[in-house]
Amino acid sequence: EKGVTLPDRAAMDGAKAAIRDWESIPERYQEAVAACYAWTLLSGSDSGMFDGSANMTRAQACVVLSGLLSQVEETL
Q1: CB under 8 Å to 25, separation ≥6 — which residues?
Q2: Sequence-ordered list of residues with C-beta below 8 angstroms from that of 28, at least 6 positions apart, any chain
Q3: N or C: which end of the chain has fewer CB within 10 A?
């Protein structure tokens, strides 16, 4: 919607491969999760799991939102 370009296919595929619980992510969210990993907005747990049902701390949310803002600003 804001004209942000998604990471290239190789980066998206690398992000998918890095997520050990990829198949547990609902299909409608998979592309967004892969993009956030490729942009390093998300890194998952130490065990390589995304764990989408876990709660995010305020600090984690701030890191994600700050990184997302940077991605959008680079595009504008």
Answers
A1: 19, 33, 50, 52
A2: none
A3: N
Residue type, 34: A
pLDDT-derived band at 1, boundaries 50, 70, 90: low
Measured between its terminal Cα atoms, the distance across the chain in Å is: 12
CB-CB contact of 38 with 45 (8 Å)? no
Contact 38, 19 (CB under 8 A): no
Distance, in Å, from the CA atom of 23 to the CA atom of 20, rounded to the nearest integer, reads: 8
pTM score, two decimals?
0.82
- Cα–Cα distance, 51 to 1 (Å, whole number): 27
Q: Evaluate whether 44 touches 70 at the Cβ level (below 8 Å).
A: no
- Of 75 and 17, the structure prediction assigns the larger pLDDT to 17
